[in-house]
Amino acid sequence: MYNIKTPLCAIDLFCGVGGLSLGFEQAGIPILASFDNWERALDVYNLNFSHKAINLDLSDVPSAVSELKKYPANMIVGGPPCQDFSHAGKRTEKDRAELTKCFAEIVVNLKPKIFVMENVDRVIKSNAWGTAKLILKSGGYGLTEKILDASFCGCPQIRKRFFCVGFLDKADNALLPYIEKNISEKQMTIRDYFGENIDTTYYYRHPRNYCRRAVYSIDEASPTIRGVNRPIPKGYLGHPGDPVTISAGVRPLTTSERSQIQTFPRDFMWTGSKTDIEQMIGNAVPVNLAKFVALAIIDYGKTEGGINNE
To answer: Is 232 part of any domain?
Structure first.
């Protein structure tokens, strides 16, 4: 049984700009430190958090474990880079997929009470996750695996993400009831989230090709926010699925609006080129989705896990 006198505190691996960190902190689980080697994202992270994000090569597992042991965390959260599993990529497993295995190896070496790994939904069918799962099971973790759509978890965006939550020396699927009971029956729309704080009804989202829809209404959940945000091109002539034709009343979302659809606070600070910032926003974990999972963990802990973060 976990010691109820020891509240959870975490470190965040592959932290990016801090979507997971911020969601967990909003839920009441403090982050002691975060780690990545993407300098542009680390600059943004360190503008927004009181603790530090540190440049660390997490692919060098022995060195990483040695460094991470300095932090008295009983939880590890993280999102190994997912481009090689992404629907937007070539759908092959390359070097980045190896980082999923590295995450698992770090976890079993440090033996936190709980770990949380998130990734794109496709990872669940990958060889890399299959290998990582075997490592985690051999380390004594009971695993809860769940693909969540952010639009049913407090975010105005259709974004499917895979989460695996592991509890040391617990049964598989221990967290599943606590996740599923709070999933909304209705998708959150952009209007639900922004209220009157958005000045357009229809907006342009650049498609991967012109055979796809590109105009959306704020009265539906946003499609997945990607790392591309372009003006309406002259070559776009419309799509049968568009609710309205291109006109002066249709515009792309601003960088700030895209960040808020990822549920970052309005005052979250970004730095870098516009291209870099759009990519960082597109790669981020929605803050409210991370908070949704963190609250399920706290709920589980209060009820039967011997964990208390009040």
So the answer is: no
